[in-house]
Amino acid sequence: MKKILTLVLALCLVILAGCGGGSQNSQPTQETSQEETNSYKITLIVKNLVNPMWLAVKEGAEAAAKEYGVELTVLAPLKADNNEEQIRQVEDAITKQADAIVLIPADSQGIIPAVEKANQAGIPVINVNTKVGGGVTETFVAVENYDAASKVAEAVAEKLGQKGKVIILEGKAGAQSAIDLKQGAVDTFAKYEGIEIVASQTANWNRAEAMQVTQNLLQAHPDVNAIFASNDEMAMGAVEAVDQAGLTGKIIIAGLDANQDALEAIKEGKMTLTCDKRGFEQGYVGVEAAVKVLNNEPVDDRIVIDTTIVDESNVDEFLK
Amino acid sequence: MTYAKIIKQLKKLPGIIYGLVIIIAFFGVTADYFLTFMNMMNILKQASVLIVVSLGMTLAILLGKIDMSVGSTMSLVGVVTGICLHKGISIPLAICIGMAVGSIIGFINGYLIGYRKFDYWIVTFSNMGIAQSLALVITNGATIPGFDSSFRFLGDGQIYGVPVGILIAMAIALAIIYLSYNTKFGSNIYAVGGNEQVARYSGIDTSKVIFKTYILSSLLAGFAGILLVSKVNSANPIAGSGYEFDAIAATLIGGTPFDGGRGGVLGTIIGACIIATLRNGLNMLGLTPPIQFTLVGFIIILIIIFDVLNEKYKAKKGGAANEA
């Protein structure tokens, strides 16, 4: 029995040694300023680390952390967009006595208990990108989704020569960002008499689903002139479907987010335009706002991040 | 006698308990604020939902089978209960309706596997999909937010600083420990898992044992789903997805292997605590999450290595290696 016990202990130590090694390897995620002895500890929680948008937010936040000498911890759910894990991570940040939490909730309603707990613990919460449905947050740093969609729809209308048939690919049903994006597009297209929305369907922010939906809609409406997708992932799905139908270049495809592969598609002429929602900026300003709150400096309730339309004329500036 | 049984069971789990102790010691040294009362309560609270669902999974695995439908049963029961609560139905009744819906999944699993001898993978996989899609259909894919504070008390309340969710999970765990170690039904589960044919020849109604176990598993999963809804104050139609794998991991780490008839729920509870502790500790260290999967997988492999070595050691000693 003793032998086995020793073996188990040895094996466990091996795991833990591996674990310790892991913690050293991941040091880059913890930007620590050596000079400032009592630097602020800020925890950033994003929806996942597989979507380029949130990676950009993370990079922006890390840049700001370096700039202001903040000790930044970045967390994301293991299962992408999992609300329960985000709650856990907020709880862990509270226990760890973080000075501030910068939060992008995967579920606006589901995250409320966690925000309330942070409020009780007196830890300021900076809300970025997606609105928290309740509790107290210091500020909301985000683009105006409605305005961004209007801007994109405006650009599409211009490229269409103010007339034509349009398909809208919506985000996940019920999500506030999806509702705002759709409304911005619908209201803008309604301003043009020559433009008709022939179909508006959800593809759940998902590329594969958008490809399928677009294929079906192209069957039903072969004379479509433009596709408005509420994010670049869905736009890329539409690009694929249009490509397979042999219609590349004949249909205008617009998305939002300015993801790298969408930018490349614009460069190649497969996609028409996208909208840079400046994830880097969102992360940067989020951490900056947290520092301001901690320094007792005034912060606006709402910080709007500007957006830029990217098409073939300026795509090179955005391609990495 | 019963006390001796529990002691005997405890003696079978030294590796796992020491594993937990070592992990706690490691994080206690490396992560600030890890060894605080608040954080220990945090870990137990985070483990409570997993403990409840893992108990059912362990019973199914003790049978030498598996229940892949527990995760989506959690989601389904959660949203059904959530919808009932929003319709103004009282809390106990809403919970009963939710559990009843969940038990239908267990009923189908148990009937087809126990009495019709269908393959347990196929049946529980199919029900995993069916329960998941039902949850999505009745909610239209949307989250049901916001419940009464009295309902939230279940998963989020505190009594003298101890989260209620932990107390509930502990009560359920004690009941299942008693059931599996001290009742005829419990020993029948072990007998069926050890060798189904022998069990049948020795006069055990194996079909009935399997049927009851699957219903119990779905009831436990359903209750875990309700605890989860109460904890996060919203019912999400995919909230439980992935829990089946965590439950399997907790069972395996706890020393109950897939071949059935060996191990037990005590180990599973420790296994669930190990998973929760690892996740909490890694968050406290500020590690990015992807490494967590690797570590949980790594530990399962180590436990299995230990399990095999242990069996060999016992066989070499000439003792009765097969105590199931």
Structure description:
- The complex is a heterodimer of chains A (320) and B (324).
- By secondary structure, chain A is of the alpha/beta class.
- Chain A folds into 2 domains: 30-142 and 279-305, Response regulator (Rossmann fold, 3-Layer(aba) Sandwich), CATH 3.40.50; 145-276, 3-Layer(aba) Sandwich (Rossmann fold).
- In chain A, 47% of the residues lie in helices and 18% in strands.
- Chain A is built from 11 helices and 12 strands.
- In chain A, the strands form 3 sheets. Chain A has a 6-stranded parallel β-sheet with strand order 2-1-3-4-5-11, sandwiched between helices.
- In chain A, helix 6 links the parallel strand 6 (163-170) and strand 7 (194-202).
- The longest helix of chain A is centred in the first third of the chain and has 24 residues, at 2-25.
- The radius of gyration of chain A is 22 Å and the shape is elongated.
- The N and C termini of chain A lie far apart (59 Å).
- Residues 16-37 of chain A have low confidence and may be disordered.
- Helix content of chain B is 76%, strand content 2%.
- Chain B contains 14 helices and 4 strands.
- Chain B has a two-stranded antiparallel ribbon with strand order 1-4. In chain B, strands 2-3 form a two-stranded antiparallel ribbon.
- In chain B, strand 2 and strand 3 form a beta hairpin.
- The interface between A and B is large, with 49 and 56 residues.
